[in-house]
Design goal:
Elements lengths: L9 H27 L14 H14 L2 H9 L9 H23 L6 H5 L6 H29 L5 H26 L12 H27 L6 H31 L3 H11 L9 H18 L2 H4 L2 H26 L16 H30 L2
């Protein structure tokens, strides 16, 4: 079946070449980073996690969101998702691949990742994060591939695959929960030291993931023969709305706790993010952009006629994707380092090499999803 992923017209092949060019640029910049070290990035002693980890954190959520298609279809027999589930699983595969690559880029020396295998430490959250990520990658890759093959041969899904599908549901929750523990388990970072970090991660994931899936499916609908049912889009819009409402609610709870308790270490980060702190305010425009886009999308989705209008739904999905990307990426990760444990402020600026390497990883994810979607569509077309 894999050969069907490379079958397409001139525009499709041009798109593949474009992605490969971006990947090549990222690889070149990464080779420079390997030689010169992480000094070419905007990270420092006070801000030791930057754009790479921000992207990693966000796309773990996008990967986990595949479960929002699996649960309605496999547990509640929601037939409208029957043709969409595999696209969510392929999106999860591409997202996990990106997550792994972002972590490799952030480590500086990729061979250090071997220490996790050569010297496993079960008391480390990072060990469990790697375990659940690769496990989730295996589950979704296996499920999507076998599901597509059974469609092609018109056979029923085996009991083993059904078991893997059911296993992927708690596993999806686990990958984002364990990732949240990476933050919530650091006592020196008060902005992250909260028991609600994992629910916040899951809520934002169940908003951002469906948003990206809606945008991709609408693109597929425009460029190919495949026409997903309108009701399926509307249901995804509802899931996205509920996830975003929960995300906003949890965030407001964090703000209330930080300021009503009047504990400076808990409130300083939010002060920096929304109005600036001691003259430093680099992230303020981004945070308010996230707020405006997020609330605008929620107000749009609350209107049923807008949810059922594809153009309006696409706009709302784009707004939620950008909003959660800023909130869960730049604001959460970088904002958590301000102020530092020594009560100093060191702001972070993304550098050109970081952007190029990140663009290369984004292109790899896009390439994986493009090939997987093309293969699926070609197999179904020839059935």
């Amino acid at each position: 079946m894999i050969e069907k992923a490379f079958t397409g017209g001139k525009k499709y092949k041009t798109w593949l070449i474009f992605l490969l060019a971006i990947i090549a640029g990222g690889v070149y910049q990464y080779s420079i980073q390997l030689q010169e070290g992480l000094s070419i990035t905007g990270m420092s002693r006070d801000v030791s996690w930057g754009f790479y980890v921000a992207n990693f954190t966000f796309f773990v959520g996008v990967a986990a969101s595949a479960v929002m298609l699996v649960i309605p279809y496999y547990l509640h027999n929601y037939k409208k998702f029957s043709q969409l589930v595999i696209f969510g699983e392929w999106l999860a595969v591409g997202s996990v691949v990106m997550c792994v690559l972002f972590i490799m880029a952030d480590m500086g020396q990729p061979q250090r990742a071997l220490n996790i295998l050569l010297h496993p430490t079960p008391n480390s959250i990072l060990f469990w994060d790697v375990l659940v990520l690769f496990g989730y990658l295996f589950l979704n890759l296996t499920i999507a591939w076998v599901t597509l093959r059974t469609e092609k041969t018109r056979m029923e899904i085996s009991k083993l695959v059904k078991f893997l599908i059911l296993l992927s549901i708690p596993w999806a929750i686990a990958i984002h929960t364990v990732t949240a523990f990476l933050y919530a388990g650091l006592p020196g970072r008060h902005a992250w030291l909260t028991a609600i970090m994992a629910p916040r991660f899951l809520a934002s994931a169940f908003a951002a993931g469906p948003a990206l899936l809606i945008l991709l499916l609408m693109l597929v609908k425009k460029l190919t023969y495949y026409k997903p049912e309108k009701e399926a889009f509307a249901t995804l819009g509802k899931i996205m709305l509920y996830g975003m409402l929960a995300n906003i609610f949890f965030y407001l709870m964090e703000i209330f706790t930080a300021f009503y308790s009047n504990i400076p270490s808990h409130s300083h980060t939010f002060t920096y993010l929304f109005v600036g702190l001691d003259g430093y305010s680099k992230l303020v425009p981004y945070v308010w952009t996230s707020v405006v886009l997020g609330f605008s999308a929620v107000f749009m989705l609350l209107v049923p006629t807008i949810r059922t209008n594809h153009k309006a739904l696409a706009v709302a999905s784009l707004l939620i994707f950008i909003s959660t990307y800023i909130d869960k990426g730049l604001a959460l990760v970088i904002g958590g380092f301000i102020p530092s444990t020594l009560e100093t402020i060191t702001e972070y600026t993304i550098t050109g090499p970081e952007l190029a390497i990140s663009a290369g990883i984004w292109a790899i994810g896009a390439l994986v999803v493009t090939l997987a979607y093309r293969m699926t569509l070609n197999v179904r077309q020839n059935m």
